[in-house]
């Protein structure tokens, strides 16, 4: 596995073209996010901080100094993105008619991550794991927590020892919670979800929390299923801890 400058040199050597994917639109959202950063004492080097999607006049002015031609709508969008950073992880597990299994976890990661960071998605055994005799598993959410427990591999091993997919996922979530001494205050700082597909087609999704506050309302965790008999459908994840709105 390679990341950072070493990965760039390797790509160049194989003729992969270099493309700058940064746009002024996304850079503006990043600058708005910078205003949200606080130290342990709640201080911010930019402004008085970002506590709501709608910017204050002072915060908006800071961005308009850099982008004088930006519209009010663009400024508002940038602060919306800063307050609700996008995520981009998708786990997909498959079982075909021949009984062959496959799995993948793709990701662009959480917005504003540290340059060079490698999360769990590309790590076989953490972000995804497939055993043709037993089943497959994968994850979305806080990658560092998944790496610590080698989540996907642990779930498949649980199924190997007879656990149902949902119980296999919950067991690994319990391991994560235990590493924080089951402290709800500390665990509330992140989300992590696991998905499992057994060789016989039984599947499950499990979340650390019952839901998350998303743009002002409580959203429950779901996963998509298609068993080949019709349209895809959403099913609810089981959860370990209940989050209060």
Structure notes:
- It is a single chain.
- The strands form 4 sheets. Strands 3-4-5-6-11 form a 5-stranded mixed β-sheet, with helices on one face. Strands 1-2 form a two-stranded antiparallel ribbon.
- Helix content is 32%, strand content 23%.
- The protein has helices spanning 5-13, 24-34, 57-66, 72-83, 143-149, 151-160, 165-179, 184-187, and strands at 90-95, 101-106, 128-131, 135-141, 192-198, 203-209, 211-214, 217-220, 222-225, 233-236, 238-241.
- The chain has 245 residues and is α+β, with helices and mostly antiparallel strands.
- The protein starts with a helix and ends with a strand.
- It folds into 2 domains: 9-83, no CATH class; 90-241, 4-Layer Sandwich (Glutamine Phosphoribosylpyrophosphate, subunit 1, domain 1).
């Amino acid at each position: 596995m390679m990341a950072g400058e070493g990965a760039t040199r390797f790509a160049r050597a194989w003729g992969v073209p270099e493309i700058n994917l940064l746009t002024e639109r996304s850079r503006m959202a990043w600058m708005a996010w910078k205003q949200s950063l606080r130290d342990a004492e709640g201080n911010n080097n930019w402004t008085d901080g970002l506590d709501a999607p709608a910017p204050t006049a002072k915060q908006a002015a800071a961005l308009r100094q850099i982008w004088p031609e930006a519209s009010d709508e663009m400024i508002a969008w940038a602060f919306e993105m800063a307050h609700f950073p996008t995520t981009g992880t998708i786990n997909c597990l498959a079982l075909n008619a021949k009984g062959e299994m496959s799995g993948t976890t793709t990701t662009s990661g959480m917005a504003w991550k540290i340059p060079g960071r490698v999360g769990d998605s590309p790590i076989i055994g953490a972000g995804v794991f497939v055993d043709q005799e037993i089943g497959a598993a994968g994850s979305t959410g806080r990658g560092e927590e998944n790496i610590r427990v080698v989540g996907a591999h642990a779930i498949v091993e649980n199924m190997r020892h007879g656990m149902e997919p949902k119980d296999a996922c919950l067991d690994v979530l319990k391991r994560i919670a235990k590493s924080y001494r089951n402290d709800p205050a500390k665990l509330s700082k992140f989300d992590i979800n696991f998905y499992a597909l057994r060789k016989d087609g039984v599947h499950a999704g499990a979340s650390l929390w019952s839901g998350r506050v998303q743009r002002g309302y409580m959203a429950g965790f779901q996963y998509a299923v298609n068993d080949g008999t019709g349209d895809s459908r959403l099913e609810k994840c089981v959860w370990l801890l209940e989050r209060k709105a």
